[in-house]
């Protein structure tokens, strides 16, 4: 097992020739949802024009069949083939896009993720000679994986163990960006009959793209290492509100009596709104049975819960894959409360500003807080034989991996270059800041590893300090 001094030495290695940072806002920002209303059983109303072609399609569907589930609305807005945000946006990341993520803020973030994977591989007896498969879901521009691979190539035994890199990405434009970053600026993925593929520039390992993680076939001699950074927050959710008649689903309806002109300079008005389902739906009926945390809220008037079935499915896939391999790990980093059930957290981000999630469908990024408690419950099913570590605050996780030592090492290399020093300091502070809505506090890290008697896992050396839990809207009793 790797020692802590060894971990510190890992953190002091690898440096880019240059570093960059953006001063734009990070993706996480809270926004209150509009008031919901009840749906009349005979739902007939005059419909509004909408500002995008996708919005028009959604409005027509609602006019035909009535309000739709929030999950369906989010899926259409984010990944719909008729103009979804991720399937049609060429590059939503960075200063020129709608939000900036941790890997774009500082190279140190991706480097430390690479160090974490190496450390975990060493802690698992170098996975007993198995080949390492690196799997990232939602890789953005490819920056995180690029920084991680640059660190990994400095450790020859690990680099030799890596057999392949697999990226789960449905967007063609983003696949091209990832290929340029990981393989070479002039390269694009090559179609190989069933998948897009190319060789990485770092140590020649092939990188293959998949639309769905379930398409990835792992062999018996492979150890999977999953990375999911700001992936779960973009997965669609269902929302429920407690009423005197029990849980009721919050549906999405067209907002009445609003005319939205496509090229108007007027402030954007919500084109859709929440509507409370008039009767018990199948998803609402199942809420209490999904978790004792949800059942505990059923006695609280107007309590709300947000549930992500897709998140449940991905955690099952991670845990089952690690269990079957007897090795590997999954690292999830995202934003959300550590101990409470998310509520009222759906938000829209456009050009680094908070907007309603119900404006310009397909042109606004939608996300919601991750229910880390639900992820832990799912992973700890007795048939998986895995351990869960965390969630830990991002600041704790990064400090445990040696971000301070890495920052000091980079600063020493950049001595005399005031611009680079300012960039390094800004990145270090943004990633670890715990005040207010600082990324070091709001973002959490969670690891799934094979069961091993509760051994210490890098970055999770101590419990996060117990303090008041952050809330997107209003506090909800802890369960």
From TrEMBL:
Record-stated family: Belongs to the NDUFAF7 family.
Entry keyword Protein biosynthesis: no
Any one of the GO BP annotations: mitochondrial respiratory chain complex I assembly
Region span, Disordered: 455-479
Gene3D superfamilies for this protein: 3.40.50.12710
Gene Ontology terms, MF aspect: protein-arginine omega-N symmetric methyltransferase activity
EC number: 2.1.1.320
Keyword line: Methyltransferase, Mitochondrion, Transferase
Biological role stated in the UniProt entry: Arginine methyltransferase involved in the assembly or stability of mitochondrial NADH:ubiquinone oxidoreductase complex (complex I).
Catalytic reaction(s) noted: L-arginyl-[protein] + 2 S-adenosyl-L-methionine = N(omega),N(omega)'-dimethyl-L-arginyl-[protein] + 2 S-adenosyl-L-homocysteine + 2 H(+)
One Gene Ontology cellular component: mitochondrion
Organism per entry: Arthrobotrys conoides
Stated name of the protein: Protein arginine methyltransferase NDUFAF7
Subcellular location: Mitochondrion
UniProt keyword annotation of Methyltransferase present: yes
EC supergroup of this enzyme: transferase
InterPro entries in alphabetical order: NDUFAF7, NDUFAF7_sf, SAM-dependent_MTases_sf
């Amino acid at each position: 097992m790797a020692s802590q001094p060894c971990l510190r030495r890992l953190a002091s290695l690898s440096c880019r020739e240059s570093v960059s940072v953006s001063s734009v806002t990070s993706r996480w920002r809270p926004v209150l949802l509009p008031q919901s209303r009840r749906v009349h059983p005979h739902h007939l109303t005059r419909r509004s024009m909408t500002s995008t072609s996708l919005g028009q399609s959604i409005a027509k569907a609602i006019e035909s069949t009535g309000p739709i589930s929030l999950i369906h609305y989010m899926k259409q807005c984010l990944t719909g083939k008729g103009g979804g945000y991720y399937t049609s946006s060429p590059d939503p990341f960075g200063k020129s896009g709608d939000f900036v993520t941790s890997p774009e803020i500082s190279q140190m973030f991706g480097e430390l993720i690479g160090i974490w994977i190496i450390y975990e591989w060493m802690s698992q007896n170098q996975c007993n000679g198995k080949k390492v498969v690196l799997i990232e879901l939602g890789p953005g521009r490819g920056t995180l994986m690029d920084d991680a691979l640059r660190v990994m190539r400095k450790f020859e035994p690990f680099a030799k163990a890596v057999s392949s890199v697999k990226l789960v990405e449905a967007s063609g434009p983003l696949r091209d960006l990832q290929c340029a970053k990981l393989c070479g600026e002039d390269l694009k993925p090559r179609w190989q009959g069933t998948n897009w593929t190319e060789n990485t520039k770092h140590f020649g390992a092939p990188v293959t793209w998949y639309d769905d993680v379930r398409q990835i076939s792992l062999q018996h001699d492979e150890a999977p290492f999953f990375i999911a950074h700001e992936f779960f927050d973009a997965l669609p959710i269902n929302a429920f509100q407690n009423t005197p008649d029990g849980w009721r689903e919050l549906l999405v309806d067209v907002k009445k009596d609003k005319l939205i002109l496509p090229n108007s300079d007027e402030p954007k008005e919500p084109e859709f709104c929440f509507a409370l389902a008039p009767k018990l739906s199948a998803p609402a009926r199942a809420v209490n049975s999904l978790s004792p945390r949800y059942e505990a809220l059923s006695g609280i008037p107007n309590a709300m819960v947000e549930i992500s079935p897709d998140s449940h499915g991905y955690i099952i896939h991670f845990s089952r894959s690690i269990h079957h391999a007897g090795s590997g790990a999954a690292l999830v980093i995202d934003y959300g409360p550590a101990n409470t059930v998310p509520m009222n957290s759906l938000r829209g981000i456009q050009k680094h500003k908070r907007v309603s999630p119900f404006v310009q469908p397909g042109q606004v990024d939608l996300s919601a807080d991750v229910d880390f408690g639900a992820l832990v419950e799912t992973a700890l099913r007795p048939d998986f034989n895995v351990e869960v570590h965390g969630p830990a605050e991002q600041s704790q996780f990064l400090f445990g991996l040696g971000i301070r030592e890495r920052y000091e090492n980079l600063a020493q290399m950049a001595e005399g270059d005031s611009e680079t020093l300012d960039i390094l300091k800004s990145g270090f502070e943004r990633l670890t800041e715990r005040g207010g809505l600082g990324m070091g506090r709001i973002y959490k890290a969670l690891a799934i590893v094979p069961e091993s008697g509760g051994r210490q896992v890098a970055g999770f050396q101590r419990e996060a300090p117990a303090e008041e839990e952050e809330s997107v809207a209003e506090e909800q009793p802890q369960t």
